[in-house]
Amino acid sequence: MKKKKKYIKKSKGCYLGNIDKDIKRLKEKMELASNNQEFEKAIELRDKIINLERAGKKQKVSNFLHKSIDIIGIARNNIETHLTIFEVRGSNLDNKKTIILKDVEDIEDEEIIENYIMQTYGASDNILDIPEKIMLREILPHHDILEKIISEKIGHKVEIIVPKKGEKLKFVELAEQNSQISLKNATRNEEIILNELKQLLSLKDIPRRIEMYDISNISGDYTVAGMAVLINGKISKKDFRKFNIKETIGQNDFASMKEIITRRLKHTLDGKIGLRKYSRYDNSRWWKRSAY
Question: How remote is the C-alpha of 12 from its chain's centroid?
Fold first, then answer.
């Protein structure tokens, strides 16, 4: 009976949207499980967090008098930028979404947000998705122009505002915090996956840099190799390379693979690290053997 009452109390809390404490508790458990290398448990806890966040996304926003407001928060590191958008409709926090952007490290926050606003609202075919107000942390360089474009599109005034105090400012800060949490969780999830890969391949160290090679030719001629790279579990296009096969004659993928990996290691490592440090794994044992 006590367990039943406890379950009803938890369910009621979730229904009312008071789930922040539960989510925080689960995140602490997930981080502990990840640190203890209990990766299956960490993934299970992550899924529970996602389900709780979805269940509690419609929450009352007491002092918002406008019918529709979008609130945008941003967080970034040197690999990704995360934008969180709260969609308030009819005094309810009706939806929350996070957009992940890559290869934008040279672009300022304001420009990223401007591009998002222009593409999402200025170029949108569905005017019903355009809110009355858009709330941000900072004034945008083309603030007035964006307001004019979106307002003309929808047929009435749309304001882009930067709140300085009160509940509106708190919601902008909350959107930013959600972006930071999303960014942190993305990094944590990558750590879980990389640790799983380390165990699966019986590696001594976590594979921070992963290089993948493929051999290609045209009817047996013009053989080339392509290299794709992941750094900390993320695709790094700037490190992609293409190599011409110089020594191998004819169509011999195994010999071509051995040639290109040997050249690659000699070029980047001066031969100081053995080839077995960088085995290529494939469904075929012949591929792996050709790299030794």
Answer: 32
Rounded CA separation 208/282 (Å)? 19
Give the pTM: 0.53
Least Cα distance to 203 among 137, 281, 116, 149 occurs for: 281
> Phi/psi at 75 (nearest 5 deg)?
-145, 150
Cβ pair 205, 192 in contact under 8 A: no
The one-digit pLDDT tens for each residue of the chain (292 residues) are 444 444 334 443 443 345 667 787 888 888 888 777 777 777 778 877 776 766 555 555 555 555 789 999 999 987 789 999 998 887 677 788 889 998 888 899 999 999 999 988 877 676 777 888 999 999 999 999 999 999 988 888 889 999 998 888 888 998 999 899 888 877 777 778 888 888 888 888 888 888 888 888 877 678 889 999 888 887 888 889 898 888 887 788 888 888 888 888 877 665 444 444 544 545 444 444 444 4
Rounded to 10 degrees, what is the CA torsion of 45, 47, 50, 55? Answer: -100
Q: How far is CA 93 from CA 37, 56, 71, 72, 270, in A?
A: 36, 9, 10, 13, 57
Task: Give the span between the Cα atoms of 127 and 123, in whole angstroms.
Answer: 10
Contact (CB, 8 A) for 171 and 86: yes
Whole-angstrom distance, CA of residue 79 vs CA of residue 106: 11
Q: Which residue has the tokens 């050709």?
A: 290
Task: Describe the crossing of helices 20-35 and 39-55 by its angle, rounded to 10 degrees.
Answer: 160
- Do 152 and 125 contact (CB within 8 A), yes or no? no
According to DSSP, the residues that pair with 232 across neighbouring strands are none
Phi/psi-derived region of residue 168, left when phi > 0, alpha when psi is between -120 and 50, beta in every other case? alpha
Q: What is the DSSP letter of 126?
A: -
